[in-house]
Structure formats: structure tokens, C-alpha cells
Structures
1.
Amino acid sequence: MSSPVLPLTWHLARRSGRRGWQGQLLAAAAATVSSLVLLVLFAAWHGAGARADATAWRTPQPDRHGTAVQALTTTFVRGEPVTVVSLAQLPGRKPTPAPPGVAAFPKPGQVYLSPALAELAHRLPALQLADRFPKTASYETIGAAGLAAPDELVAVVGRSASDPAVSPAAGDAPLDSGLIARVVISGYSGTTPSPFTVYDQSGMLLGAGLLVVPVLMLATASGRLGAARREQRLAALRLAGATPRQILAMTGAETAAVGAAGAAAGALAYRLLLPALAHLPFGIGTWHTGDLWVGGLGVLAVVASVSLLTALSAVSTLRQVARSPLGVAQQSNPRRTRMIRLVLFAAAVLYILVSVDGGGLKTSQQAALVMLFYGAFWIIGPWVVDRLGRLMARFARRPATLLAARRLSDDPRSAWRTVSGLVMAGFVAGFLSVAHLDFGGHDYSGQVAVSVPAAEHRPAAAREAAERARALLTEAGVTATVHARTDDKDDDSLLWGRAGVTVRLPSGPAQVDTALTALTALNPASPPYTQKYFTAADDLGSATRRELGLAVLTAGFVVATASAGLTAAANVLDRRRVYGLLRLAGTPMKVLDRARVRETVVPLVVLAGGMTASGVYGAVKLNEAGDTTVDSSGALQLTVCVLIGAAAMFAAIAASRPLLRAVTDNPAQQPD
């Protein structure tokens, strides 16, 4: 005999009425947002790894029996890094394969440019960029396989084996920063990414770690939306003779189907949004669309996970229905929090402080402490909301505040889940957006340096290089002050004790680019450089951290907005009997609406706002310790993000106001 569970589940779902269908749609919408955000987080992490892999070919493994020489240099135009890879086939060796993204191994004098660099070379005067490369009738194009981002600036130049640009002196770098290297190769299998992409994936992992728990909580919340109505219905079935196993099976089947439908819709939205997501800048630039595609198995895994979480969450809420259906029907069990949460939070924080005091922690240990710190807030969060509700009730002067306080105390976990995604995200965003991690140093802005070959480290060679530099700059129309430098260790210049030439420019970036182009011929083995050579990776890292903080906060607001809006609408449906009774007792609609808003706004301001302010305060103190100023652009972006996010949350909560009006209209005639 077949089980009646599934037919009965389908029958009750179809006969649940308009309010029941509205609850199902809200649950599906929560699953949709959860699936979409999880896929985006997965895609960002996956894409960051693909970026790093796409740059590893530029630093391949050395092979003393190799077939070609590869020299990596980095120059700058308009302050942006340009990666230049010079390749020379060694005579008498077998042909070397072409690098990724390049159609064929470049012949001497042949130049391949990335699309963004080719466009820039055509737009800028030749004296500022194009003359740094060999003269050629036309440039070949580097494909996406050799680029970390569509707008990355990369050049591949073919050289002869005797060209100074690939000589042993080409690996003589003023600083071991990974921007200059020379190696004999036979292929391009490398494991060291570019300094501009090496930390992207770890940063994305941090951002995903801050957001994945709130997103998973939203997925589990989708199983709880409409729980009050479901519990009442199932309690009646339980009292009518249904077994606990049947109750659980009905709930699991219903919510799993709703969660799967919502998660599939989120996966479809992710697929449609991929081109738009690829245009979002991060670090070195925008993204290749293919790098953000997690694959069919990844999509199926996320959809299945969200569906399973939804079902498990709904089933876990029915323990009271199975044990005490009469108590559920009477709504006699408010959810309180216990003081043990505060004790556990204090113990976790104390353990973290003791662990970091000695230093010397491994990366895995640091990650574990970060997760413990995050978990500590999840322990204390509901307790703080509960106490906040009690404090509000004690000092409430208006009915709306008193109603909101009662709701916070009755169900603090629900209020915490709504704002939890913004608590740690706000702290991280506040810190990374305002912190200006620059602990001083020399200022060499407007200075260009060129070293002389190591074999010619003598005052005469430096003076000869200075005379030639003056001639090259005069020919290019650049007015500058040129100094010959020896290898004096106390020499205060960009050469840092190396013999060479320094050029002081009084003009702006166009003159700097022209000087860099003109001085390229001075020492082909060691291109001229500016202060950007030493600070580019750190500058990009600081900008990436700021972008990461704002991205985490933005995603946190998306999750919180969806959670606040969907929870507010579901609560209206679940509490319509209470709202109806309050309306019959004479409570104005305005008071009920204000209570709903304050129920979300108070924890948002106190918890998320307080943690964001704490992050800003910590960044200000760090800036003071490093004698630096606040990052004003980051602070402005943080302010705009917070204002827009808060407005979105208010709009999401206000969107359920018509539903509140509908369920309280003529309450005496409502079937409840």
C-alpha cells in the first residue's frame, strides 16, 4: 500500500489558500537569494584562482638545458603596471612552444600586445609608450589565455639571443619584488603567480568566509518562513492522529520542493548575470566571463545544498510539534536565551587574545582563530538582541517601541539572523576602507632612475650614462635635471646604492611616461623605473583590500536586505492573528508598522552600526600609529555604501506594508 504522505502534502499545499501560497513564494525567494549569493561567492573565489593561474606562465620553472631565454620586466604608463615578457630562441636548440595566449613563438622584433595595451599604445603619443617596444608594422594580439583580466596591460616581445634585453644582466633587479626576472626555459609550467594576483584568491576566501554563514542562515531561514502557520496546521494533524514520522516527512517534502525551485531560480539568475558580474573591477581589472563560471557540477552542488538546508531547517523546527502539539497550538513557548552564551563568548575571546599574544602562528592557525572569532559573535549575537529587547521594554515610552521590544525578546534568534551578515562585514569594511597602511618612507615622486650594467659600476660609466640620458631627454623634448650616481651606500635616490642615473622631472604623468620611454634605450637590460616599481604591488594590494571590504559590505547588505524584507513579509503572515487582535483592540495601523520597522532597525543600528564604527576606530588608531591620514576616498565610499544599503533595507521592510494592511483589514471577518 502506497504512503499517503506525499498526496496529502500536495493536497494541503494546494488548499493552503492565498496566504499559504504567499508564504511559499517568500520561502522560494529566500532560497533564490541564497543560491545566487553562494554561486557568486563561489565564482569570485574560482575566478581569482583562475587569474593567478593565468599569470604563472610568466615565471616558468628554469631549465638549464632549455631552448629559450625569457626575461620579465615591468614598466609603467600613467601609473599602471605594464608586464613585458621578452623571449629569445636559443640557436641550435629545438623550437620552443608559444606561451599561452600567443599564436606562435615570437620572432625577433615581433610584438604581441594585450587588447587594452594595444588600445593605449594607439591612443597615447608614441614618445610616451609605443617607442618602448621594437618598431613593427602592426601588433599581434595576446589572447585571453595569457591574461589575468581583459584590461590587463601585457606585452610579449621577440628578441634575438644576443639582445641585451635577455642577457644575464636582465635579471639584475633593484628589488626582489617578482617584477623582474630572467630564466632559461623549455616550457611555461610555472607555479608562482604575478605579484598583482597572488593574493586575490586568499582575499576572496576571506570575503566568502565572512559571508557564507549569513547566506547559509538565510537558506535555513527559508525553511522557517511561514513556520508559525505550518506548525499550527501540523499540530492539528498531530492531534488528529498523524504520527511524528508522517509530520516530518510532509514538512521535508514540501520545503525541499520549495527550496529546490528557489535555488534553481537563483542558479538561472547567476547564469544570466555572469556577463554583468565580469564587468565588476577587482584588483588588476575586470574578469573573463569564463573564469567566473563554476561549472555544472558546482551549480548542482549549490542547488542541492540550499534545498537540503531548507528542508533540514523546516524539519528541525517541528520537534516541539511532535512532542507537544497542544503547546504549539496555544503558542506557549517563547524562545529565550541563556547567560551561558556570554560565558562562552568571553572564553572564546580570552583564548584568542592569549593565542595571538605570542605571535608566530601558522596560516592555518590564524584562519582557525578568525573562524573562532566569527563563531563567538554568533554565540553572543542572540543574547545581545534578547537583552536589547528587554532594555527597550524597560525604557519604552511609545507603544511601537514596546511592541518591538517584546518581539525582540520573544524571538531574538530571528532578529539576529536578519542583521548577522552585517556585523562582521561591517567591521571588516570599516577597517579596510579607512585604513591607510603606509608606514612612511622616502618620497621619490617625479624621479626616474636607470642603473648601469654591473660590469661597468664605476664613476666614469655613470657620468657617460648621464650625458647620454641628457641627450635622449632633450631629443624627446623633456626638461629634467640629470644626476650621475655612484654605488655610494648613503646615496638617497631610487637607485638605493646602485650606480646609475637619476632624473628629476618637474612635470606631470605625461612627462614621466615620455622620460621612461626615452631612457629605455639607455640600458636595455634594465629598463628605467620610478617609485611605482617599489610601491605598485602594495598600492594595488591596499586598493584591493578596500574593494574587498566594500564588496563584502555590499554583499552583506544584499543578504540582510533580502532577509529583512522576506522575514518582515513572512512575519506579517505568521502574526496576522495577533495583528488582527491588536487592530480589534484599537491599535492604529501606524503603530503596528512602526513596531515592525523598529524590530529590525534597532539591532541593525546597535550591532551592525556599532561594529562598523569599531572597524573605523581601529583603522584610525592604526593610521595614527603609522603616522598616516585616513583614506578619504575609502571613507567616502564606505559612507555611500552604508547609506544606500540602509535605504535598501528600509525599502525592503516597507514593501510588506500593503500586506500588513491587507491582513488587518476588517479583522473581525478574518477566518482566524
Note: The longest strand covers residues 68-77.
2.
Amino acid sequence: MTDNMEREPMLELFIFETYQLIDQLEQALLNFEKGSELEDSINEIFRIMHTIKGSAAMMLYDNISTLAHSMEDLFFYLREEKPENVEHSKIIDIVFEGIDFIKAETAKIENGLEPDGSSEELKAKARNYLEQLKESNPSANDSKHESKKGTQENSDQKYYIRSDKNGQILTTNKYEAVIFFEDGCEMENMRAFSVIHDLESIAEIVSYTPQDVLENNESSLVIRNEGFKVVFKTDLGLEEVKKRLSQTVLLKDLQVYLTDDALEGFEINDNEKNSLGTDEDKSTVSSEEKRIELDDNVDQASKENSKKIEDGKTSEENARENGKEQSKNAGKQSVISVNIAKLDRLMDLVGELVIAEAMVTQNPDLKGLVLNNFNKAARQLNKITSELQDIVMSIRMVPLAMTFQKMNRIVRDMCKKLDKSVKLEIIGEDTEVDKNIIERISDPLIHLIRNSIDHGIEKADERVANGKPPTGKLVLEAKNAGGDVWIIVKDDGRGLNKEKILERAKANGLLFKPESELTDREIYSFIFLPGFSTKESVTEFSGRGVGMDIVTKNIEMVGGSVHVDSTPGEGTTFTIRFPLTLAIIDGMIIAVGGNKYTIPTVAILESFRIKNEAIIQDEVGNEMIMVRGECYPVVRLYKRFGVDTGITDLTEGIMIMVEGENKRMCIFADALLGQQQVVVKALPKYIKRVNGVAGCTLLGDGDISLILNVDEII
């Protein structure tokens, strides 16, 4: 894969914005299918397709731009003509196919490949359905042709007539537009070029400032401070021009005017001469007055709908618009797109800074010295380092909303192909996690949701027969719990068949202890093993024994775990648990012999020395300890990892009670060395994965400490 730090800035911007637009488009299509705010959804889809078309054409990716153009034509017809007998599901299927094509081609570009896919078949589908709509709605078509015919018949004569009277409007207008982009959007010169490229399809460009938008990167600074000015001619009205330009991506402010020479070459109706005045009168009118008069006369109706001019609005409309504007500004914030590779590098540097700080403040040469000023400076350094770490961590944190919203498409496609009705409920989508974790959990969520719909949720007739509502319910929930994030996928389907799972596990030789000793959760966990499937036949979605093992692999790669609980006839719940971040954690350093280990503090409940607690042994030698009437298993770390130590008597060392997987146990160590922030480093590739070890870290004195995985030890 091409390193995205080495890509051209314009190409990087295209890839980033295309993916963003695709996500927005999928959500708009799902809203369109549900029928909520139908007109708004059509406008939104049209706008997004128009933007994709323009940016792809600018980058010379014709297969993407022409496909987007055909989709745009379809929604333009829906928006303008509002035809009847529209098959929404058919339109959505066509556009979703187009989205998948654009997504695949963009992925090729991202990986440094040539986007050579053919979109001819998809374009033909869009064109054919558009023709069907036009044939089934001839009235709208006829009126449009009549309108065009009337315009052509009178195109030879050019008249200037006030818009509040019936008659012909200007057929050629000259406009001046000033465009400001959002603060921090970067590469304003490229965005300005995109505006020019888009305008060329509807207008004749007269001039634009600055003129060297492509050749000179410094033009971005001029556009940022003074705006991008463009003068062009078109036969579109003022409101249509404003609508077109308002679709510019990351637009902050837009000003559009008819220029002073807009009347040149136009005859004036006799009835209008008095209202406009004599030639002598007109010559004394200032340039600004002419512009205002022209705007008022030519497009008063448009100005009543414009945000800039509110004189024509009722007080109620003004109040409503002001409220909307204030609410937009209240939640608005300046943002800047940053390459994730740069953030990873920044995180690495902060990690090294944390290690360097520990090396300075915990230097063995300082032992026994009274250094008041040094300690004061060290505390200040620690404070600044902690704040810097928190800021960098917060930059990397992104909400799960976008990942969760993508699941709507998965549910929609699955229901359509399996002929099931399922409602997806999303809870806690604002929960934030590390960017790297987001990338790892998308595939597991897709597999879990597919599993719930395919295996779990029944068809409508079966649900009704079992006394359930015909529409199944699928809940996708995220929440914070201590230093962990929990994602729960829950359905109200038929549940897992424990007997069938156990039978298949026995046949495959997967039982690791006597059947009578297996808990329900342990039996259900067999479904996560590679090659395990209870499906008798292979379908498009399941039956090959792959998928659920991918869930566990991806989640374990980010230090997480997944569990399943099920109640027959009531449903199944998958619970994913993973750390909030992977980079820096608070840890307790413990000593075992000559080695040092780190236990994440979020897993520690308490530490104590054994006094009167009872030690119990079972018949195979497993030790347990009674603490306040509760019995907990004991793990001696020196035995677990084969470490030589002189402290083997439980009364001489220290017990650390930890919790994981909803279970508790006590870890026996020589001593506690103290708590500190540690940077999590992966074990070298030449070391085989060690059960119970999550990684390693470098301590302040230069020693290496293994970080324990409490869940695996339990």
C-alpha cells in the first residue's frame, strides 16, 4: 500500500473527502428509504452526487464522475418534477450499487492502483430507470418541454422586465461571486480550482482572483484572507447561481452579485422606461446603487428566500432563521484534517517523552540525595507531560458514531436478501475510542450483526407464531466502564442452540474438560473457534466456519475480549470489551525475583499481606485464599513464569487482588515497587506470543517490565 504521507496533497484531499461523502450518502439513502423528510433527503443526495462528480472530474477519474453524473440526473428529475409511482427501493438499490463501485475505485486509488473499473452497466441502469420514470409521468415531461419551447421561441429578443410582473426575464447575466472557505480547511487554492471547474459546466468564466490558484501555493493565503473572487456569465437566475455555489464543500461564506454591466446589450420594455428613469438619470446613479437596484428588480423573489436579505421575510420567518443560524454557530467548531500517520508518530514521541521523564526523575544516581529544587522541577515536568499526553490522547479519540451508522447499511442489505424485518437501535454512539481501535472493530461488528440477523432473528411468520412482534430488534450499544469500552450487540431472536453447539464441539474434538463441568458461556464460546459452524448449508452470509474467529482475532489485536450469552427463545448478547487506548496506561510495578512486572491499575482491586487468612488446597494442588468470607484462587507468578525467587512463603510476599472477565483472583508477588504511567510496547516478533502477557514497557531505571494480561491469567 502506498504510504499516504507521500501522496500528493490534492489526491489525499480527494480520497479523504470522497470517503466522507460516501458515508453521508449512505445515511441519506437510508433516510430516503424510510421516507423521513423525503424532499430534504433527495436534495442531500443530489448535492453529494454533484460534489463527487465535480471532484472526480477535476482529478480526471472519468468512470467515477460520469457515474455520479448519471445518479445526479436521476435525483435532479425527482427533485424538480416530483414524479408519482416512484419505486424507492429500486432507486436505492441502483445508488447503493453505485456507492459500492465508487468506494472500490477510491480504495484502488488509495492503494496506488489505477481506478480502471467500468461503470457503464451501472450508468445504463440509472439512465433506463430515469427513462421509465419519464414515460410513466408524461405530464411533468410535457410541461417541461413546453416551457423549453416557449423559451427558445423568445430567445431572439432580450428584454429587461421587473420580476414582479409577468414576462421574460434576463437570458444572459453577468455575476461576481466572492467565496470564503471554512477556517482550517487547508488547500484553499485546490478548492477554488474545483469551484472554477464546476462553474465551467454552466457558465462562461470571465476572470478570477487570484489567477494562479494551481501554479502558486501562496494563493491559498490570499483566498483565506480576502476570499476567492470569480466573475462569470450565465443565463441562470441569481437564486439558481446561489444554490449551485452553496454546494461547495466546506463553504463558510458566499456573496453573489449581478455586476454593473449586466444591462449591456438588453432592450428595455416601454412600460419599464419610466420606472428605470432617463439615460441622464441613470448616468448619475452610483455603481453600488445600480447593483442594488438591479438585484431588487431582477430577482426580488429570490432575495426573499436568501439568508443575506431579510427585508422581505415575516418576523416569524426571521426569528426561525436566526434560531437556526445561532444553533449552527453554537455547535460549530474550527477543525483541521490531520494525517493519521502523523498522529501515530506524535503519540510515539509522547511515549518516548514519558519514558525519558521517568529515566530522569527515577535515576538511581539520585537515591539518597536531598534535592528540593530538583523535586519541584520534576513535579512541574510531570504535570506538563501528563497534560501533553492527555491532549494527544484526546486528539486521537474519535466517536463510534460513524462506525455504528455504517451498520444501518449492513442491516438493510441483510434484511432485503433474507426477507426479514429488523429494526436497528443504536445507543451510546458518542462514546469515543482510539482511532486505531476504530479500524479494528469495524469488521467484528459486521460479522456479529450478520450472525444475529442470519442465525438469530427469525422471519416474521415464525416470530408471530412464537408470540413476538413481526419486526426483530437488534441493539448496538457502546458505553465506558472504568478504563474499558464495552460494545454490546443484542438481538431478540431464537437464541443459540446449546445442545447443537456441544454436539458439534464433541465431533470436532474441541472439549477441553468433562462435559458436565462446562458452563453455558464456555459452550457458547465454541462458536468463536476457527472452522466451527452449526449451519447445515453454506449461504452467502454463513456456513463456512469463518467469520466469528475473525471477530476474536481482531478484538484480541487491540487487547480486547468478546463473550456471548444466550437465552433460548429470547435472544443472544455479544459483549466486546477493550481498553480505551493502547498507547499509555497507569500501571502498578511489582517485583518477582529479579524481574519486574506491570499490572494495569484498572484491574487492581486491593493489595494486602496475609495474616489470618485461610489458605486452602484442592486435591490437585490448586491454592485458594479466604478473604472476608469469599474464596479466591491464588496464582504464584514465580511458578507461572518460572522465575527464581527467595520469597516463596505467602506470608512474606504480597497479594494483589485483581478482577477481569467478571471474575476475581489473587496474584502473589515479592513486593510492590510503585505506580507509574507506562508506555505499552509490543513484544518483538521473534518472541512467540506468551499467554498472560499483553506487552512490555521500559522503566525509568532502564529495566524492561512485562505487562500482564489479567483476563488471560484468570
Note: The first strand starts at residue 159 and ends at 160.
3.
Amino acid sequence: MKTKFQETLSRANEAIFRYPMVLVMALLASAGAICIAETDRFEITSYIKFTICACLGISLMFALKMLSQRIGKELLLHVSGVIFLIGFYCILPDRKESFTEVHAYLIAVTALLSHLLVSFIPFLERDRELRFWQYNKNLFINIFLTAVFTGVLTGGVELAILAIDKLFDFNFHDRIYRDTFFVLAIFGSSFIFLLFNDKGLNNLEKDGTYPVVLKFFTQFILIPLLLIYVTILYFYSVKIVINWQLPRGWVSYLVLAYSIVGILALLLVHPLKQENAKSWVRIFSKVFYYTILPLIALLFTAIFTRILEYGYTEPRYFVLLLALWLSSIVVYFIFNKKATIKFIPVSLFLFGVFALIFPYLNAFSVAKRSQKTELMNILNQHQLISAGKINFQKKVTDTIRTEIANKFEFLAERKQGAFLSGLLNEKDQAELSENIKKGSFYSIQNKFSDVNVTVKNRAYEMNKLVLIRKEQAVEIGNYQYLISFHRYSRDPQQLNNDQFELTDQLTEKSSLKLSLNDQEEIDFGPQIIKLFEENKNKTGNVKLPEIAMESDLSKYHVKLIFNEITKEKYSEDDTADIYYENVYILIKLK
């Protein structure tokens, strides 16, 4: 027992001194996640940026460590990694409202690139094919083991804390469970993974026997599933030809899924290709890339059907890029007799870097230019431009109105205010600029779609009424307290040892109940329904002097104030959805 303990302690000590930067990043990521959870949601932007960069740093520092074990220069590589992370931190916006889907794409692709870097960075030289495979196979197994160990450890520790809390009446705060989870899930998993890799690159690339479990999984599960999958896709292709119809958009994802999983299967069985006894592996390896050829034609047809109709967006750009990458893989392995499997992660990494940073042709530049062109085409096609500005008196269909509004929101999120302002009058320019500055991109889309374009020919369209308070500032008056509830976060609010809770069932039961200490409650739903009834003959945005209602609740007098509240309905048979973003509650003692 003592020997085992000393051995474990020795391995832990070796992992700490071999991978200090990886562990520092994991520790910082854990601390950042805890800070996000314990900080007011309106003040967590810096913690989000910090945590994202620290999480990226875990895989990046591990990749640089692997490279340093090959070429040396560890200090220089780690300094370069830190500089990159600082630069990435500065790229991310300083305000939570400014985080858009663009930043989500940037973060996701960068995270993918950092993991791809781990897979090939120590093997840039030639003639290391088998070592490259052994290295990635060992990493794959260690990741799986890490997930199992981390799950068991986290569950066990959480249950131990719960047992101590309940059996000995410690009354731990709930955050101890949350913080423990973050530490074990991020720092703990990283440390466990490093324990499996404590000897470093030399041990990871060492030749070993092919795992029986991996062989069974690939032969009897993965490859049969791929055969079923490709059969379905081929039947769908035949159906398209027979019916002579364009493929559905989501078929792109199915083709990519089949291709990527198939490539993964080939990588898993790579060492078995040369064994005469494994003829099924050789056949699969030779046939697979030929099976993709017809599907690539289907893939490009589906992609360009969407692009030609709606233009480029970042997701369509990335799907097209994956299709081009897949085509390069097929061509490479079919025509190159000395093909190396290292080409797969290296080429995907280069395509990803191209998509992020290549001037003019990166995903974000292409999407912005394309949507600008699409917007101008719609405006010109429907003669909505007058003296260089949009003519909001011109009648268009609901579909066109929605398209224009969506493109305005899309471009506003990407800070194309100068281009959009050129299409608006001075008053709308100022409002647009303010909304972009505040990050109120939905307000841009909502205002444009419901106010600025008159609707005609409503065959099937959402009936939407938005009641807006003219004065957005809330006057407190003689009230003593103000609390607020958000649409997606209505946790109980504490005041003078009393607990206020808002229960929103406006859509289901026309009910919006404010309760005090789970004992007394008042339902403001009927007053809200009455307010919509008074404006039932209106659509779009309707400005009101005030959207407020008040009542007594035990020893308090309360007043609910909405900046805006929306009711929308798609058809006469549907239930109307009623919702709001924020509600302010003014409170005073009676």
C-alpha cells in the first residue's frame, strides 16, 4: 500500500513538473468558471473572456509541450503561447452584450484548431507514420480513460460532500457542490489526463500492440453502421434523380457526418491495412474514398442551392470549406500512392486557419460582403430604394419584410453600421447607432420588421403585437425598493428577509403571479390580457405612455413596470405567445 502511494505521489509530482503551464491554465480555467457562477450576470464579461482563453490554453500548452519535447525551446514556445492567448483575450469584446454568434464561431474554430495542433505538431517530419498513429491512438485511449476517471471521481466527491452535509448537519452552501464540480471537471480532468501521459512524447509514440477493444469496435460496430448510413444516402441520391428535385439543406450535414466518421474509422484501423489476414480492412480502406465521390456531388449541390438562394453566412461558409477539405482528402488518397494519414489533421488545420485569418476570403469577410449584396439585391428588386434611402412607404410582402429585417440584424451584429446607416434617414441612423452600441441587435430586427415596412398579402404570417413604453427610464417616485426579473432567469429575490417570486404562465394560463414567501400572491395576468384586448386591432410596435400595473401584497404595495411586452400568434388555431425581456417591480411598505 505504501509503495503504491509513493508511486502515485511520484507520478503526480512528475506530471506537475513536466506540464506546469498546462496545469496553470487548467487551474485558471477552474477559477474563472467559479467566478462566472458567483458573479452577477451583468458583470461577468471579463471572467468569460478569461475562462475561454484559459480553456484554450490547456490544449495549446499541451501541444507546445509535445513540440518542445521534439525540438526543445520550451521557454520560447510557452512564451509564444501566452502571447497568443493574451492577443485572443484582447480580440474578444469587453461587454457581454457585444458577444455575438461571430465570437462563438471564432471561439469554436480556434478550440478545434488547438486540439488539431495537439494531434500532429510533434510529427511534422517525414517517415514517422506509425509513431504518429501510435501517438494519437494513445491520446485517444487516455482521453477516454480520463473521462471515466473524472466522472467517477467527481460523482464520488460530490456524494461524499452530500453525505457529510446531511449526516452531520453542516448545512453547506449550494455553491460548494458547484465549485467542486468546476475544479474536478476542469482542473481534475486535466491532471488525470497528464498522469496518463506522465512520460511524455517518447512514451506516447512508442510502438505497442493493437488494442483488441478498438479492433472489435471498428470491425463490428463502426464500419457496419457506416455501411447502413451510406446505403441510406445512396437511396436518397437515387430518389433525387428520379424526382428531379434539389436536395434538402440538411443532407449536407449527413454527408459530412458519414465522411468524417468514415475517415475516423480508417484512422483507427490504419496499422491493420498491411496485414494479409485483415482483408476486410484493406477492402474498406480502398473502397471508402470512392464511395464518397457521388456523395460529394450531392454535398456541393445542397450547399450551393442554399448559397445561391440566400447568400453566404458563416455556417454555410464552414460547410462549404469542409466540403472542399473533404474533396482534397479524397483526391489525395485516391491519386497519391504514398499518401500519409498526417495529411488529414494538417490539411484540416490549414483550412481552419484560412477560414479565420486569410484576408478578404475568411469566413467573416465573405459572409458580410455576401449579405450586403443580398440586401441590396432585395431592395433594388422590389424598388425600395429612393434617393439612396429605403422607402418605408413602399408595400412589400411579409416574406420580403422579414428577409430585409433579418439581414439588417445580421449586418448590425457584425458592426456594419456605416453601410446600414447609408440606407436610413438621420433619425433612424441615430437609433441604429445606439442599438449597435448597446448590443440590442434584436431591437434592430424587431423595429425594422414591424414598423418600417407596410405589410400586404398576408397569407401565412405571424400576427405580432409589441407594446412599448414610450419612456424607457423607470421613475421610482415614492417607492423604496426596485427589483427586476429577466425573462429567462426568475430566481426568487430577497428583500428585508422576505422572498418575492414571479411565476410566468402568460402563454399557458394567462397568469403572471407575484408571490411573497410562498404564502400570498397576486395575479397580474388578467390586467396584461386586458391591455392587449384594448389594442387588439393593432399590429407591429405600439407605443404606450406606460405599461404598468399595481396592487397590494401583504404589507407591501407593488408596481410592475414593463419596457415592452409582446404577443404573437402564427395562426388562428395556435395559442398566442406572450412574453417580455425584463419586468421591474417597485416596492414600498404600506
Note: The first helix runs from residue 2 to 18.
